[in-house]
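During the second half of the funding period, the structural biology subgroup turned its attention to how the target accommodates small molecules. The most pressing case was zinc ion, which had performed well in the primary screen but for which no bound structure existed. We therefore specified the complex as follows and requested a full 3D prediction, including the ligand pose.
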Amino acid sequence: MSTISVIDTHCDALLKLWEDRKLSFTDSISIDCNAERLVKGQVKVQCFAIFVEPFVKQDQKFSVVLEQIDLFYQKVLTPHPQFKLIRHWHEIETLEDGEIGAILTLEGVDPIGDDLARLRILYELGVRSVGLTWNQANLCADGVGETRGAGLSNLGKELVKENNRYNVLTDVSHLSEAGFWDVIKLADYPIASHSNAKAKCVHPRNLTDEQIKALIDAKGFIGVVFYPLFLNGTNHATISDILHHIDHICSLGGEKFIGFGSDFDGIDKKVENLKNAEMYPVLLNELLKHYSEETVRGFANENFIRMLSKNV
Ligand SMILES: [Zn+2]
């Protein structure tokens, strides 16, 4: 079995912990990215998304963000001392054997309303990557599900500049195409934390070749997502479907910019033999049949780290 460790740029374990307060992060079988599974899957760094469901009323959204951050500290970090909060990017490279880096991310800025002070408070609490939207529109930008299809508002542009000032990543997954191009112009650290290639599967959540090339030119990052619907348009997919997307992004020059953004705990359908975080070695072994070990190490962790240092 492979000994390559993994960085995963998107999971929704915090949402599951928020929805059912009785769940344990340690070993609940309903959590794809629970602590035991992350250890077994040789995950070195896990991003934990804060996501507020659209049904939550606007004036309650920021409280829900804080509740999920509280759950992150109380259920992920405190009971598991081997989990280390990543506050500064260089801390990923100083993680010791047996330690797992935990990165807090925000999926959709609806909860901050028009108040960038709230965003800075979230930075202070540990948020290191910010996606502007989920599928709907908000005051900063339109998501892929908003038919208006607008890009960033002035507030959205200010928000991206604030991300740059704090070395925080700007995540384009879920963002409208017009919003994507605005972010590419402005963001120091553009990433697509969980998106696939539209050329391989036509879905609004996937990226066109032009978008993929722009992320490569910007020395950004694309986390390939393990959701069957975004892999082949159906409810059933295999690891070869993931390889098709990786092959395609590589054919556009993206070999050094690809990683994994599983979307575990946010997806109801799974890829065969890749149903939770403990199964990464199956994916890595399949990749090792097609790519050199150096390239697979890039996909698994080094491309993300290199993107952070902007040192390609
Ligand atoms: Zn998502």
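Two results from this model are relevant to the next phase. The CA atoms of residues 94 and 230 lie 34 Å apart. Residues 58-77 form the longest helix (20 residues).
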